[in-house]
TrEMBL record:
A GO BP annotation: D-xylose metabolic process
Region of interest: Disordered: 539-559
Membership in a protein family: Belongs to the FGGY kinase family.
Name of this protein: Sugar (Pentulose or hexulose) kinase
Endoplasmic reticulum in keyword set: no
Lipoprotein recorded as keyword: no
Pfam families xrefs: FGGY_C, FGGY_N
InterPro entries xref list: ATPase_NBD, FGGY_C, FGGY_Carb_Kinase, FGGY_N
Length: 559
C-alpha cells in the first residue's frame, strides 16, 4: 500500500476532509479510490458560559492545527512521505448556530452553538410568519432572538456564518456555504437553489418592526451546490492549517458543508427514499423526500442534501451522552472491585446485557436530556431515571431502557414523518458511536422506526471522510475525470460505494411491540421531566461575574 499511496500523496492525487464535530475535530486524507490513507484528530469540548453553549475560535484554530499535524504524522508513519499538497479539500462542521462578525472580521458575541435553546420566542414568530418550521438552533432564529432581546452588537453586524463557513472563510477568504449547511441557516427555495427571497424580505420587515434596520441577504454567505468550486487555499489559510509551512497554498476547496450533509454522503443516502441516522452527542435522522410534505410540523426541519434535494430532518439535541455517563459509573465500580476494564469492554458488556432485557424496558423509564429538547418542548434538560415500585431492577432491562431512551425523541419525530406524512423508506443507514457495538442499538432502532436498518463499513471515518469525498467530487468535475453534469448520487453509486458491505437487521415483532409500550409510558411521563426542569436547579450554572466555566463531558463516538 505504501508504494501505491506514496506517489499519489506526493503527486496531489488525494483529497483532504476536515470536520469539526461536537467532541472531536477530525482530518481524513483519501486516495484516488476514495479509501482513507491517513487520519488525524484533536479532542475538544463545548463550554457553558453565561448560560449558553459555546466554543472559542482559538480552540477552533488550535484543534484544526492539531488534527492536520497528527494527520501529517500519520502520512509519514504509514507512507514515508511528507504531506505538502492535496488535489482538493473541504471543511465540514456542526450545523446551525450563530457566528456574527463586524466589518473588520471581529467576532461580536461568543459562538452560540446548535445546542442552545434560548430562541423560543423567535422560533414561534418566524415559524408563523414563514409558514415553515424554524427550529431553535437555526441561525436565523438566533439572529431574530438577538433582535427581540435588543442586543447591542447588532448595530455593528456585517455578516453571519456557520462554523464550517467560518473555517472556510479563514482558509480561502470566501464567504460561501454548501447548500446543505446554508439550509440550516435560512430556508432554501428549491426552484432557485438559493435563500427564499420572499422570506428574506419578510425578515427584514420584522427586524424593522423591532427597530433594527438590516438586509439579511447581505449578511448571509453565498450558496453553492456540491461539485462546484468554492475558492482556493490562501497563504494565510495554509499557515492556519500547517504552521510548519509544509502545506502550500493554491489547493482548491469544495463548498463547506454541515455534518448532516457529510453524514448523508458518508452513508450514500442522498437519493430520494433513502435516509440515515447519526448518533453521537446528538442524534438525528435525515430522510430524502420524493415530494413536499403536506403541512408544517414543528418536529421536522426541512433542509437539503449537498446537491440541493429536499430532506426532512428529525434532530434531537440529546443522544448518547447519558449512556456514556452510566457506562462511566459502571467502569468506576468495576475498578473499585479491582478489575481494570477498558471503556470498550464496558460498553460491549452493557450493550450485550440489554439484548436480554425485557422487551418494553420492564416498566422503567429514562430521559437522556442533558440539555433542552425542542421536539418535546423542553428548553432545558435534567437526566432522569425512574421506575414503578413493581418494576424489576435488573441490568439487562436497565440498559435496554437507556438505549430506548436515546432513541425515544427520534421516534416521536419519525412517527410524524412515517405515520402522519406517509413517507416510505427503501433503506435507513445507521452510523455513529451508538452503533459500534454490533447488533444492539441497530436492532433497537429497527424496532423504534419499524424499518430495516443497515450498518457497514461505508461510514468508517464519518463526516470527515464525507467532506473529503465531496472535495474529490468537485476536483473530478473540474479536471474532467467525471462529467460536469454527473449527479452526486450517481457519483457515489458508481465511483465511491461499488464495493461497500452492509449488514441489515429487520425489525423483530417482539421488539417493535415492546418499544411501542415503552413509548406510551415515555410520552405519558413527560410531565415528570418537565417538573424536574422546573424544580431541580443546575448547581453549576454560571453567573455573569463567575470565572470558571462548566463543561459537560461527552464522547462523540462511544464503543
Amino acid at each position: 500500500m505504501t508504494m501505491e499511496a506514496g506517489p499519489a500523496i506526493t503527486g496531489g492525487r488525494t483529497a483532504l476532509g476536515i470536520e469539526l464535530g461536537s467532541t472531536r475535530i477530525k482530518a481524513v486524507l483519501i486516495g484516488p479510490d476514495h479509501e482513507p490513507l491517513a487520519v488525524g484528530s484533536s479532542d475538544w469540548e463545548n463550554q457553558l458560559v453565561d448560560g449558553l453553549w459555546t466554543y472559542s475560535l482559538d480552540a477552533v484554530r488550535a484543534g484544526v492545527q492539531e488534527s492536520v499535524a497528527t494527520l501529517a504524522d500519520d502520512v509519514r508513519r504509514r507512507h514515508g512521505v511528507d504531506l505538502s499538497t492535496v488535489g482538493g479539500m473541504g471543511v465540514s462542521a456542526m450545523m446551525h448556530g450563530y457566528l456574527a462578525f463586524d466589518a473588520d472580521g471581529e467576532l461580536l458575541t461568543p459562538f452560540r452553538t446548535w445546542r442552545n435553546t434560548n430562541t423560543g420566542r423567535a422560533t414561534v414568530r418566524l415559524s408563523v410568519e414563514f409558514g415553515v418550521n424554524i427550529p431553535h438552533r437555526w441561525s436565523v432564529a438566533h439572529l431574530y432572538q438577538a433582535i427581540l432581546d435588543g442586543e447591542e452588537h447588532l448595530g455593528r453586524l456585517d455578516h453571519l456564518t456557520t462554523l464550517a463557513g467560518y473555517l472556510h472563510w479563514q482558509l480561502t477568504g470566501e464567504k460561501v456555504l454548501g447548500i446543505g449547511d446554508a439550509s440550516g441557516m435560512f430556508p432554501i427555495d428549491s426552484s432557485t437553489g438559493g435563500y427564499d427571497a420572499t422570506m428574506l424580505a419578510r425578515f427584514d420587515e420584522l427586524a424593522a418592526e423591532a427597530g433594527v434596520e438590516l438586509t439579511l441577504a447581505d449578511l448571509l454567505p453565498a450558496v453553492a451546490l456540491a461539485g462546484r468550486p468554492a475558492g482556493t487555499l490562501t497563504a494565510a489559510g495554509a499557515t492556519l492549517l500547517d504552521p510548519s509551512g509544509r502545506l502550500g497554498p493554491g489547493i482548491p476547496l469544495c463548498p463547506p458543508e454541515g455534518d448532516a450533509g457529510t453524514g448523508m454522503v458518508a452513508t450514500n443516502s442522498v437519493a430520494p427514499r433513502t435516509g440515515n441516522v447519526s448518533a453521537g452527542t446528538s442524534i438525528f435522522a435525515m430522510v430524502v423526500l420524493e415530494h413536499e410534505l403536506t403541512r408544517v410540523h414543528r418536529e421536522l426541519d426541512l433542509v437539503t442534501t449537498p446537491a440541493g434535494d429536499p430532506v426532512a430532518m428529525v434532530h434531537c439535541n440529546n443522544g448518547a451522552s447519558e449512556l456514556e455517563a452510566w457506562a462511566g459509573l459502571f467502569t468506576e465500580f468495576a475498578r473499585a472491585l479491582g478489575s481494570e476494564v477498558g471503556t470498550s469492554e464496558v460498553f460491549e458488556t452493557l450493550f450485550a446485557a440489554a439484548l436480554g432485557g425485557a422487551s418494553d424496558g420492564g416498566g422503567m423509564l429514562a430521559y437522556n436530556y442533558l440539555s433542552g429538547e425542542p421536539i418535546t418542548d423542553l428548553e432545558e434538560g435534567r437526566p432522569l431515571f425512574l421506575r414503578s415500585p413493581d418494576s424489576r431492577l435488573d441490568l439487562g432491562s436497565f440498559m435496554r431502557t437507556h438505549l430506548y431512551a436515546s432513541l425515544a425523541t427520534l421516534r416521536i419525530g419519525m412517527d410524524v414523518l412515517q405515520r402522519t406524512e406517509g413517507v416510505r423508506l427503501m433503506r435507513m443507514f445507521a452510523h455513529g458511536g451508538l452503533f459500534k457495538t454490533e447488533g444492539v442499538a441497530q436492532r433497537f432502532l429497527a424496532a423504534a422506526i419499524d424499518t430495516p436498518v443497515s450498518v457497514g463499513d461505508v461510514a468508517g471515518e464519518g463526516g470527515a471522510w464525507g467532506i473529503a469525498v465531496l472535495a474529490a467530487f468537485a476536483a473530478d468535475r473540474s479536471s474532467g475525470r467525471c462529467a460536469p453534469e454527473q449527479a452526486l448520487a450517481d457519483y457515489l453509486d458508481t465511483r465511491v460505494f461499488t464495493g461497500a458491505t452492509l449488514q441489515t437487521v429487520h425489525p423483530d415483532p417482539a421488539d417493535v411491540e415492546g418499544f411501542d409500550a415503552f413509548m406510551r409510558r415515555y410520552v405519558a411521563a413527560l410531565p415528570v421531566e418537565r417538573a424536574a426542569v422546573a424544580h431541580v436547579a443546575v448547581g453549576r450554572r454560571q453567573t455573569a461575574d463567575s470565572e470558571p466555566t462548566a463543561t459537560v463531558p461527552t464522547e462523540e463516538e462511544p464503543a
